[in-house]
Amino acid sequence: MSSIPCLRVYARKGEIPIPDIEENTFRDILKYIYCDQITISNDNVLEILYAADKYMLAAVKGGCEAVLKQTAQSEHATKALQTAYQHNLSDLQTESLNYIEMNTQACLLSEYALSLSRDCLGLILNSDYLNCTETDICHFIIKWGGHQCRLANLEPSGGNIRDILGNNLYMIRFQDVDMKLFSKKVAVSGLLTNNETVSIYQSHFGEESKIFSNSKRCPVTQRETFTVNRYEQTSQPMSTIGIQSIIFLSDTDIWLKGVHIFLPYVEQSYGYHNSTGTVSNNVDINIQILNDSNEEKNSSQSTNDLWSKLR
């Protein structure tokens, strides 16, 4: 039987109102608690996730995240990002952001993008790897700000959009925005102060802005791939035991795209004796990524059948 934290609710009558959860959803949660069974689909995942979060049902929450991951790599990535942020689903948030970085323009044009919260918008704007122009971002910010103003019953003026954006305003690289758009839609709108506007114009004459970021975004699609080999060539198979390592330094941020592992040659009739005395062709592989201080940044472990890998 599944466990749930002890909930002590005192009421004068036998009925306990739960106004924030639909009856069908609560029945699903009760079925899980007593029978360890639950059906999660695209139709009920958000309702189930809310209830699982409320009652701290980690396994159900994990099941909801698995369903939502199917939408993270699609035009619904912005909605998945908002859900991940709201319910602290780190894997879903990472996958959503990765997809948005690769398909920024399409994602910002999606129906749900205008409903992004200010915090989620900040997660996107904070990325240096958005696959669109800064002019595209500026267009979206003006549109998003106007939508948020209308939701708050405010006039969609530059000043009100500025207030709603908060510190997100300074994540926009205005110096890379098309100057015609900047002059017609931004400079005269009240979105920026006079000093901020002047700093953007000055940046086009060689003076770096001290207010906005001067670094240019580098889309994921423009990343170069480099291969670092431990050996130029090998003369004998690798051992199935011991530690194999490779160290390399970089003077800029890099991304580890993958690791090629050349497994040792093992004939089907051979193998090594494990602790039980039986012959096995399996070998445990543990990949650790360490920083300059030998602190582990990431790891991956798996057991591989050497013979099946070689067939």
TrEMBL record:
Residue ranges constituting the BTB domain according to the UniProt record: 15-71
Ranges where the BACK domain occurs: 80-149
InterPro entries: BACK, BTB/POZ_dom, SKP1/BTB/POZ_sf
Highest taxon of the lineage: Eukaryota
Listed name of the protein: BTBD3_6
Source species: Mytilus edulis
